[in-house]
Fold:
Amino acid sequence: MITREQIKKTLDEIYDAEYGDGDGELTLADGISFWLQNGEYPFDVIETIVEAVYELSGKPHNALGWYAEPLRDEWSYTGEIAFVLVDAESGRCLTMHRPDRADAEASISIALPVTTEEEAIDAAAYFLRLLGVAVEERPSHGGDV
Amino acid sequence: MVTRERIAEALEHVFQDFGDEGGPDTFAKALRHWTEFGCCGHLVAKAITHAVETLSGRRDLAWYYDPWVGDDPDAEPYLIAFILVDARTKECLTLDIVSYSPHAVFSVETMDDAIAAVGYFLSLLGVAVEDNLARR
Structure:
């Protein structure tokens, strides 16, 4: 079972190694804040989530096909990223799903909010589960008044 | 055999089903908005997917499309990324087995480009198309 702490550690290590000095000072949370404040294309955030999924699932890079698009409204990024994930060996689209409405068309992308590091952990956990990896559930906030 | 003329007609025909109120009222106009102002790319992409569904007779296809718009429309080629999945089998038909990319990217600046994109997807689905339309 992969814990959320393991996912966070992996995300931060990848982010710092690729976009920082590798001294552990820079975290993915910094990258997410930078994206939301400056509105530049979040290639670093997307790449870090994808690389963490490879690392934690043990899948080689030729095993998965990815497409990611940070969603925008008229003026700026919304904080959501649409992902499409394909198993390259079988060719099957793993993110395909049918919305609840009976007449709704099948969707091949999943839009996930990535406005905090917790949400980035949720996103990585979502893809790991799609790949059959057991992942710790996010603790419930139950009882908030 | 699906000809270029049939594809052009299909693009205009399907566009009438979903054209935006207050927006361009023909596919040709939507294409001009896309290349002149960098907007309406989603309408161009949607018309391409609907034309493919109409001409192939397939209603079991799932699409993702993403018009790539830069800050400076004049400097950008007019690229649209498409992902096509067979919704029954979940097979991604646009998966590139060399790069592992699930998407196919087309430059769509002219009616001929749009026709070529439709022709490519039809050929992926096993529909016979006029010569030179099956290649990207």
